[in-house]
Amino acid sequence: MAIKAIALDIDGTLTNDRKVITPRTKEALLAAQESGVKLILSSGRPVQGLRAIASELELEAHDGLLVAFNGAHVVDAQTDEVLYDRPIDVDTLRALVEHVREFDVIPWITQGRELFVERGSRHVIRYRGEDFDIVEYERRHCDLILHEVDDLLEVCGTPQDKLLCAGEPEYLQESWRAMSEPFDGSLSSMFTADFYYEFMAPGIDKGRALAGALPKLGIDASEVVAFGDGQNDVSMIEWAGVGVAMANAVDEAKAASNMVTASNNDDGIALALEKILG
User: Of 4, 26, 253, 265, which residue has the fewest beta carbons closer than 10 angstroms?
Assistant: First the structure.
């Protein structure tokens, strides 16, 4: 079958280590859209964190899609129509917030353009031997407005798409099982970076989001190419007709893929599309 859609993780896949899209990759993706292929940005980021890249790649003009919060929320980039939405219910969310307070992590919720953290919580983690303001990093890269609240439960009066917990990578590796175990079966959880561990509604992942949204648009899994590098990309890589892992991908993503391309710093997307699309 002809390829009708390209699904792209962002960090570590679409963007290089300087968080920019290389000219060759950008040219390949713009050309694919001109030929009628739909682009899908699929990320753990909130919708607001996808807007700038969607604009750079002209998704609005070509009716692309934004898959946010690891698949909990899918919107049409042109119309903002919500095609798929699976938030965490209020009772579970409140219990989760109370639970993660027992751990040395920084929990936050993103809603619209606002990033909610508790007033007085630390913003800095130790990362690769240096102090790293993780809250400012998230705010800047997703173009968010920081909003401090006395109690994060203030934001839990309505369902939310995700609770993100940031922390030192070593601590998260030691603690993620204890963090997630009470919610096995009632929430999905995963690493999206070595300093991020995230919780979503049960059954949420990028593959299910695409499976829920694309058939409504007349696109079958066999007509999709998916690119990724992380644990949260495995479901999308497995679901797509052609799953492509970057050279810098985790072993799980490579094992799930049909093809391993060059790294995010070496135009891996463009090189793979030249082979796949011809």
Answer: 265
Residue type, 203: G
At CA 49, angle to CA 23 and CA 62, rounded to 5?
Answer: 55
Whole-number Å distance between alpha carbons of 207 and 57: 22
- What are the DSSP calls for 149-175, one per residue? ES-GGGGTTS-BS-EEEE--HHHHHHH
For the beta sheet containing 224-228, the strands, ordered from the edge strand earlier in sequence to the opposite edge, are 82-85, 73-76, 65-68, 38-42, 5-8, 224-228, 242-245, 259-260
**Amino acid letter, residue 78:** Q
Could you give phi then psi for residue 157, rounded to 5 degrees? -80, -10
Diameter over CA atoms, the chain: 55
Instruction: Assess contact for 245 and 261: CB atoms under 8 A.
Output: yes
Question: What pLDDT sits at residue 182?
Answer: 98
* Three-state secondary-structure class, residue 184: strand
Residue 184: C-alpha distances to residues 100, 219, 252, 263 (Å): 14, 32, 21, 34
DSSP assignments along 210-261, one per residue: HHHHGGGGT--GGGEEEEE-SGGGHHHHHHSSEEEE-TTS-HHHHHH-SEE-
Decide: 209 and 71 in contact? Cβ < 8 Å.
Answer: yes
Q: pTM for this one?
A: 0.91
Joined together, the tokens standing for residue 252 give 């799980």
pLDDT tens per residue across span 47-95: 999 999 999 999 999 999 999 999 999 999 999 999 989 999 999 999 9
Residue among 270, 188, 250, 275 nearest 22 (CA): 270
> Can you list the positions of beta strands (E) in the chain?
5-8, 38-42, 65-68, 73-76, 82-85, 106-111, 114-118, 124-127, 130-133, 145-149, 163-166, 188-193, 196-200, 224-228, 242-245, 259-260
